[in-house]
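User: Just a sanity check before I run the rest of the batch. Below are the structure tokens for the first item. I only need the designed sequence back.
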């Protein structure tokens, strides 16, 4: 292991600015996520205090809140003392939570440990505020308000963390939000880390394979079938497997580690070091625990967590409103489909979503019931380029189906996919598995984001048969994505749909 530390030290000396920049990105990314939870914690404290005051008065919420504010329950001097104490309680609680790493990513901590620390932080801060009330001799502040406030804060913060973790684990089980990882090295440390990933799926890490190092023996029976490449093909495998993070677990040459670090920045893949558990950490770098493993993040790419949260909120709002408003329209279309031709109302097809995850895409049926079996005989009539398949006068399309496709009404049920999290309102179209099998490595970039109902290609080049233009539109969308771009595409989609330019 001594050689490992020497090579790492040399690498850090060769690229000090790069490592410092990575550390800044890591800290900045952590702070953005933590800031959201800090705001929620502050709101929780003040709501809990208001509820405690209302409970003390035995009043309904509106009357109780008004009485508390105008000093009917708490005298004017003590009211302001209480507000100052609540602000101090918030500051102390945030500081304690940060010291106990309660704002760290949930995938990195254990559930029971988190609950214990959450209760410890709230009750410790509660003791401080109770002591402050005693020292200030604020006898006109009812003590039950302090006790109920601290109790409510403890319960609410513990429940909030529990519910959030349960939702996070549910998404992980459905394949949403997982981080695909490669392990650089095949030794005992690598195997132990792989065991941790496989047996604690609630952490959200999906093991994709080992990467062998020059001069190491990768013929061990425990790893032989899982070594998918070498250092030379590391980032090709990373692109092919939609890898988010690479864990370095074995000693390697200084130049190799330096090259991997530089390539990780180019490809936007996070890079972590797993040092010897008993070795001394001599570098001034932030550390994180992944299970029982200490990791040093050598590189962390920018991750627009706040923007993605807004995008998901926009998806939920738009899809919920659309499904509510269009419910009668859905029923009318369903009846018309049943009257027009034999077969089910909906057409379910397996599509490839973000990071290669398979999901069932739902649409109104616009073709005859035997459309899939007839696809092979119509292949020579394909009017699109390469893997795309489209026929202008497809004989499988029903009379009603042509109308639905003209105005893109057949895609409306995909709002259910958006609500479920499989799709977004805006994004690249979800391809079929047959199409993905013919993709080149560079084409897989379009699967790095959540697919959408509409996108840049739909509003700019829907009738263009070129596969290259199809791919370039999606890559351009991914490279230039913003909430504002999504809103512009949504507005333009309304015009495209109303003009009836659908296929």
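Assistant: Here's the designed sequence for the first item:
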């Amino acid at each position: 292991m001594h050689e490992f530390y020497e090579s790492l030290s040399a690498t850090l000396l060769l690229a000090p600015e790069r490592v410092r920049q990575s550390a800044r990105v890591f800290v900045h990314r952590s702070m953005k996520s933590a800031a959201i939870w800090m705001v929620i914690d502050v709101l929780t404290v003040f709501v809990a205090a208001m509820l405690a005051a209302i409970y003390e008065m035995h009043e309904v919420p509106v009357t109780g809140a008004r009485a508390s504010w105008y000093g009917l329950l708490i005298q004017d001097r003590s009211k302001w003392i209480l507000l100052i104490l609540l602000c101090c309680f918030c500051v102390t609680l945030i500081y304690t939570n940060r010291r106990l790493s309660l704002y760290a990513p949930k995938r990195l901590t254990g559930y029971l440990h988190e609950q214990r620390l959450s209760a410890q932080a709230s009750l410790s801060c509660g003791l401080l505020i109770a002591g402050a009330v005693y020292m200030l001799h604020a006898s006109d502040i009812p003590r039950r308000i302090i006790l109920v406030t601290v109790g409510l804060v403890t319960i609410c913060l513990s429940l909030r963390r529990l519910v959030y973790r349960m939702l996070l684990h549910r998404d992980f089980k459905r394949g949403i939000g997982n981080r695909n990882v490669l392990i650089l090295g095949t030794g005992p440390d690598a195997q132990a880390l792989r065991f941790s990933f496989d047996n604690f799926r609630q952490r959200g890490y999906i093991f994709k394979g080992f990467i062998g190092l020059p001069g190491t023996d990768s013929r061990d029976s425990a790893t032989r079938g899982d070594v998918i490449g070498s250092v030379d093909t590391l980032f090709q495998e990373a692109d092919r497997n939609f890898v988010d993070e690479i864990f370095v677990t074995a000693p390697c040459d200084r130049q190799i580690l330096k090259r991997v670090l530089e390539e990780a920045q180019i490809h936007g893949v996070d890079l972590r070091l797993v040092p010897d558990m008993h070795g001394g950490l001599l570098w001034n770098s932030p550390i994180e625990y992944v299970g029982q493993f200490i990791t040093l993040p050598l590189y962390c790419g920018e991750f627009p967590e706040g923007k993605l949260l807004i995008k998901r909120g926009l998806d939920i709002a738009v899809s919920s409103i659309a499904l509510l408003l269009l419910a009668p329209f859905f029923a009318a279309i369903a009846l018309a489909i049943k009257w027009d031709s034999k077969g089910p109302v909906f057409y379910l097809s397996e599509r490839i979503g973000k990071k290669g995850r398979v999901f069932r895409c739902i649409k109104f049926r616009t073709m005859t019931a035997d459309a899939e079996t007839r696809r092979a005989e119509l292949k020579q009539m394909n009017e699109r380029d390469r893997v795309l398949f489209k026929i202008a006068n497809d004989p499988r399309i029903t009379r009603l189906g042509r109308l639905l496709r003209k105005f893109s009404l057949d895609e409306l049920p995909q709002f259910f996919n958006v609500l479920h999290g499989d799709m977004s309102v805006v994004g690249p179209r979800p391809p079929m598995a047959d199409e993905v099998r013919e993709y080149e490595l560079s084409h897989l970039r379009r699967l790095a984001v959540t697919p959408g109902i509409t996108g840049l290609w739909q509003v700019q080049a829907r009738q263009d048969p070129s596969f290259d233009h199809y791919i370039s539109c999606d890559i351009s969308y991914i490279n230039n994505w913003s909430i504002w771009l999504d809103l512009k595409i949504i507005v333009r989609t309304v015009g495209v749909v109303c003009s009836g330019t659908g296929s």
